[in-house]
Each structure stands twice: as C-alpha cells, then as structure tokens.
Amino acid sequence: MESFCSNSFSSRLLLLFVFFVLSQRVNAGEPVLELVKGFEAKPDSSVVSFQPLLTDPSGNFSLGFLRLNGSRLSLAVTHPNLTDPLWVFDPTRSASWSHKTKLFFNGSLVISDPSSRVEWSTHTNGDRVIIRNDSNLLVVKTTSSVEWESFDFPGNTLVENQNFTSAMALVSSNGQYSMRLGSDFIGLYAKVNEDSQQFYWKHSALQAKAKIKDGSGPILARINPNGYIGMYQIGNIPVDVEAFNSFQKPVSGLLILRLEPDGNLRGYLWDGTHWALNYEAIRETCDLPNPCGPYSLCTPGSGCSCIDNATVIGECIHANSESPVDFCGKTAEFKVVRRGGVEVPFKELMDHKTTSSLGECEEMCVESCKCFGAVYNNGSGFCYLVDYPIRTMLGVADASKVGYFKVREGVGKKKSRVGLTVGMSLLAVIALVLMVAMVFVWFRSWSREKRVLEEDNGLSPGPYKNLGSDSFRSVEMSRR
Ligand SMILES: *[C@@H]1O[C@H](CO)[C@@H](O)[C@H](O)[C@H]1NC(C)=O
Ligand SMILES: *[C@@H]1O[C@H](CO)[C@@H](O)[C@H](O)[C@H]1NC(C)=O
Ligand SMILES: *[C@@H]1O[C@H](CO)[C@@H](O)[C@H](O)[C@H]1NC(C)=O
Ligand SMILES: *[C@@H]1O[C@H](CO)[C@@H](O)[C@H](O)[C@H]1NC(C)=O
Ligand SMILES: *[C@@H]1O[C@H](CO)[C@@H](O)[C@H](O)[C@H]1NC(C)=O
Ligand SMILES: *[C@@H]1O[C@H](CO)[C@@H](O)[C@H](O)[C@H]1NC(C)=O
Ligand SMILES: *[C@@H]1O[C@H](CO)[C@@H](O)[C@H](O)[C@H]1NC(C)=O
Ligand SMILES: *[C@@H]1O[C@H](CO)[C@@H](O)[C@H](O)[C@H]1NC(C)=O
C-alpha cells in the first residue's frame, strides 16, 4: 500500500516536472518580437551555430548571437536559409563566445566583451528594439520615431528598399572587395595592397529617364521590388536601371544584393522556399578580380594557368606574407619572367603610358622598385605598369602583347629541390589524404548522430542552418 502511494506521488511529481519542462520549452520557443529597457542576454555555451534573441513579425529574420570559428561571437541578423548573415554589428571584429560577453538594452543596444576589448553601442536613447519584416533592425522611441537602423550600416548585403548612399560601402565577408558609388556610377574595387585598390567593375548610369545634375547632391542606389537596382539623385525617377532576371516579371518575395568572397556581385530572390540567383554582375570567370590567384593567367575558354610554365597551377608563386611589399631595399632580389599573349585585366579602368618600344616599357618597370610588372601592347604602344603584387592576368591569343614580371628570388631555390623531394611529398600527400578521409567519415557519422539527437530533443535552439546544402545547391548550379 505504502509503496503504491509513494509511487503515485512520485509519478505525479514526475508529471508535474514534465509539464513544467514542457511549458518552459514552449515559452523558450516563442519568438520575441521586441526588446525593452532592462533586456540582457549572454551566449549559451550549448549553442552550436546561432542563438536567436529577437525575430521579425513574419518570422523570417532573427537577431542573435552567431558563433564563428567555434569560439568567436558576432551579433547578427540572419535568415535561416542564408549562409551568411544579412547584417553584423561590425564585420571587422568579433567578441568571444563566453559568459563574459553580454548584450543589453538600456536605450542603447550595447554588446560588451571585456576579454576581447569589444564594446559596441548604438549610442541611442530609445525605448524598444525591433526587426522589421525586411530585416531592418531598429531602435525606436514609443512615438515610433526611429533612433537607429541597421540599414544605415550595411555589411556585405543590401536588402530591397535599403538606401545605399555614397557614404557607405558594401564589403565582402573576406574583406577583399568593396562596392562604392561614384558621382555617376557603381564601382567594385579589390584590395591589392595595404593602401591601394584595383578598380575592376564599373556600371555607369545611363541617364535615360533622368539626368544627373551637378550640384544636386550625390546619387544613391536602391533595389527596387520590381526587379532592378536603381540609381537615384533626386526623388524616385531613376538615373539608371540595372535589371535583375526578374525585371518586369511579376514576382513576390524579397530581393537582396550581396558582394561575395570571389568579388562578384550577386542578387538573390527569396520566393518563400529558396533563394534563387537572380542577378550576376560579372558573368565570365576571367572578368573576376583574381580568379586564378597570384602570378597566374586566366584565358577565356581554357581557364587558369601559370605565368611561368615551370610552376604548378594553384600555387604559381607562393606569395610569402613575410616578404616585403615591393622590390625596394637590398633584400628584394628577383628574377624576370617574360611571356607573350598577356594583357592586364580591366585595362579600360587602368592608367597607361605610351612608349615606342617594348624595351622602353620594361625599362620603366626595371627602374621603379615599386613596380611588379609591365605589359606592353605592340600594336597600340600602350604600356601598363602594375605597382602591386601580380594577381591573375588575362591570357590572350595575340602574342605581340607581352608581359614582363618580377618574380621574387627564393621561389626559384625552392623549385630546384622539387625533383629530390617529389617522391617523399607524394607519399606524405597520400598519407594525408587517407587521414583526412578517415576523419571526414568519422565526422560525418558523428555530426549526423548529433544532428538527429538535436532535432529529436529540440535542443537546437535556433532556426539558423549552416548551408552548403539543399536549397543552396540549386543556386550553385544555376551559377554555372
Ligand atoms: C576564423 O578562422 C579563419 C581561418 O582560420 C580566419 O581567417 C578568420 O579571421 C577567423 N574569424 C574570426 C572571426 O576570428
Ligand atoms: C547604457 O550603457 C552604456 C554602457 O554601459 C553606457 O555607456 C550608457 O551611458 C548607458 N545608457 C543609458 C541611457 O543609460
Ligand atoms: C511587411 O510589413 C509591411 C507593413 O509594415 C506590410 O505592408 C508588408 O505586407 C509586410 N510584408 C510581408 C512579406 O509580410
Ligand atoms: C530611402 O530614401 C528615400 C528618399 O531618397 C526615402 O523616401 C525612403 O524612405 C528611404 N528608405 C529607407 C528604407 O530608409
Ligand atoms: C517570409 O517571407 C515571405 C515572403 O518573402 C512571406 O510570404 C512569408 O509569410 C514570410 N514568413 C515566413 C515564416 O516564411
Ligand atoms: C609557356 O608555354 C606557352 C605555350 O605552351 C609558350 O607560348 C610560352 O612561351 C611559355 N612561356 C614561358 C615563360 O616559358
Ligand atoms: C612590334 O611592332 C614592330 C613594328 O611595328 C615589329 O617590327 C615587331 O616585330 C613587333 N613585335 C612583336 C613582338 O610582334
Ligand atoms: C529553410 O530553413 C528552415 C529552418 O531551418 C527549414 O525548415 C526549411 O526547410 C528551409 N528551407 C529550405 C528550402 O531549405
């Protein structure tokens, strides 16, 4: 009798406990639509990829802690089916994923991490934080006046209706490429040196519907829901329309524009089920800023090769990060590689000199220790001097277009040992491949188990998904 009693008591306790846990979970799963003064959050050590803190009314976008590289943290606005976040608090910094890091709202949205010396704030005096259904994160007053918005601080992505002004830059996630507005054009730039940029794509305003007027202020760019990037100076009549694939086709869904790590600018359309590729600024691989790496050639139709035939594609020249940035000073010895059938990429955006001979053109590069190479067009007499480390050059059929390149010595020395070590390296490579394969197989089965576990328990707290998967494959395919 007694044991029955205590049994039923304990089962009742158990029931109560289960109920308690369940109701807790329901609460935890409910989307938070606004943050008010006094809000505070810390990263949860059990979260693998994304810890949501706030969502928009449609449930498509979340603000939360995004885990980077295992132990770093960024405050980000994400979409569950997009690999990269739509917005991050600061693309150049991250906090640590530790209990020392906290996010709070006291009128300003503040993230602070004394251990990484990260302190970031919206510097506002608002009453609430919300996300709009277009992913714009806002700090607002009760009067609804907007004190701060994430749309004013884009990262690598521009969202439909977001105003991109000449004071802003879109920067690719690897920090290598940027998009900016000129007086009458959209430009893409590659970082080639500490302090110089290569201009590699330009879209000038056609000014068909409206003209750009001097003294009427800078232009701005905005993605129009009707499927184009519009450039505007005054009002809503565009000075230029750069069409997406969905231009003038009735589609519903959100459009975004993203500067990607390969330097291309791509547009995507969220149609409610997946992000479809909808625009690509650069269609040809060889028109990308650096598709084959340093000291390489990209030849339309046949792909990548090395400027120096003796080297191997993929590692044409090992750019040593410790080596000086130019050929000035006595440590900077180099050998010369000459080759026909070469052009500088984006030559229409590059300065040139006119010389009467190839020798004269080369001589200018020989004399300047800042020069990495010279490319001469025998037909036009144009001489292009490259004053940053050689990246991907353009391969052309015309052999009278000749390139002269300085290649740092030391690379040659390494090569002379190649014959000796090639057998040993081959063995090492085979061993490595085997090892990687084993680890991969183990990791796959481990992560699959783990995922199943998480899905079953609902432990995975966020909708954020790391994608290389399903929905994105279709995008990748259509890219080819
Ligand atoms: C993550 O790791 C990669 C390579 O290890 C590094 O380049 C990158 O800067 C790291 N990112 C952060 C936010 O620490
Ligand atoms: C909010 O907190 C930050 C950081 O602690 C502080 O600098 C700021 O003055 C606070 N703002 C208000 C309105 O209390
Ligand atoms: C987003 O919100 C606006 C009003 O703020 C509404 O007109 C629009 O239909 C909403 N869009 C979606 C996709 O829910
Ligand atoms: C963008 O700028 C236009 C005027 O130039 C303005 O009407 C519109 O509200 C702005 N959009 C946003 C999202 O701020
Ligand atoms: C997401 O956005 C689409 C349109 O962009 C909208 O139809 C849908 O209702 C939104 N919400 C969810 C939860 O998908
Ligand atoms: C590399 O090979 C191509 C064709 O195979 C030849 O035209 C070129 O002169 C060679 N270049 C060098 C630097 O050896
Ligand atoms: C360059 O042009 C000159 C005369 O125009 C010609 O004599 C010479 O052979 C050309 N060189 C090459 C490499 O085509
Ligand atoms: C988008 O993400 C959500 C949440 O992770 C997932 O349920 C859905 O299947 C994804 N959609 C596609 C098309 O991958």
From TrEMBL:
Region span, Disordered: 458-480
Transmembrane residue ranges: 418-443
UniProt keyword RNA-binding, yes or no: no
Coiled coil feature spans: none
Subcellular location: Membrane
Domain Apple, first and last residues per copy: 328-409
Keyword terms: Disulfide bond, Membrane, Signal, Transmembrane, Transmembrane helix
Membrane-protein topology: Single-pass membrane protein
Primary location: membrane
Pfam families on file: PAN_1, S_locus_glycop
Secretion signal, residue range per the UniProt entry: 1-28
InterPro entries: Bulb-type_lectin_dom_sf, Pan_app, S_locus_glycoprot_dom, SLSG/EP1
A single Gene Ontology CC term: membrane
PANTHER family: OS07G0415500 PROTEIN (PTHR47974), RECEPTOR-LIKE SERINE_THREONINE-PROTEIN KINASE (PTHR47974:SF9)
Full protein name: PAN domain-containing protein
Lineage of the organism: Eukaryota, Viridiplantae, Streptophyta, Embryophyta, Tracheophyta
